[in-house]
Amino acid sequence: MSCRKWMRMEPTDEYERLVKFFVENQLEFDGDEEVDTDIVKCYKVTTGNDKLVGAVVLAKREGKYIIDGIAVNQESRKHRIGEIMLKKILEQVKEMGGTELYLVARAPEFFRKNGFTEVSADNAPNFFECKQCPQYMVSCHPEIMKTVIA
């Protein structure tokens, strides 16, 4: 899938590379997850020289589909890569028969613009590792969000 003529979005099995990318872009901290997560599909967005500029991981947690990570590097954010990745993940969930998609948003306004609404932790899969992050409620004030897939 082409994002822009100089970028390419494709499935990848380079999960560790994507996690490193999330950490570098301050969307994850480098620590072990406390909750079992089953990875469903990973996508990367790269430039012609294989520079990673965007990534997204679709997973299942407690039987529910979640975005386990989504990021676009700072200099590429104006190219709508986040919207393209989100659309692809929503299509994937729908193809697999899913009706909801959850995430923990560090940029909740972006997700609100794309149909997500805030939900309480009691109405979502366990995103417990947020509370273990040193950024939690210091420089990061995440919202648990979901969207319903028609």
List the helices and strands and how they pair.
Blueprint: E1 7-11, H1 15-24, E2 38-47, E3 52-61, E4 64-72, H2 81-95, E5 100-105, H3 108-113, E6 117-118, E7 143-148
Antiparallel strand pairs: 1-2, 2-3, 3-4, 5-7, 6-7
Characteristics:
21% helix; alpha+beta; globular; Aminopeptidase; 7 strands; transferase; 150 residues; 3-stranded antiparallel beta sheet; single chain
Short summary:
It contains three helices and seven strands.
Strand content: 25-35%
Question: What's the domain count?
Answer: 1
> In terms of structural class, how would the helical and strand content be classed?
alpha+beta
What is the second-level CATH architecture?
Answer: 3-Layer(aba) Sandwich
Name of the CATH superfamily: Gcn5-related N-acetyltransferase (GNAT)
Radius of gyration: 15 Å
Question: Which strand order spans the largest sheet, edge to edge or round the barrel?
Answer: 1-2-3-4
Mean pLDDT score: 84
Number of DSSP helical runs: 3
CATH topology: Aminopeptidase
Task: Give the distance, in angstroms, between the N- and C-terminal Cα atoms.
Answer: 23 Å
Elements, N to C (H/E):
EHEEEHEHEE
Protein name: Acetyltransferase (GNAT) family protein
Organism: Aminicella lysinilytica
Keywords: Transferase
InterPro entries: Acyl_CoA_acyltransferase, GNAT_dom
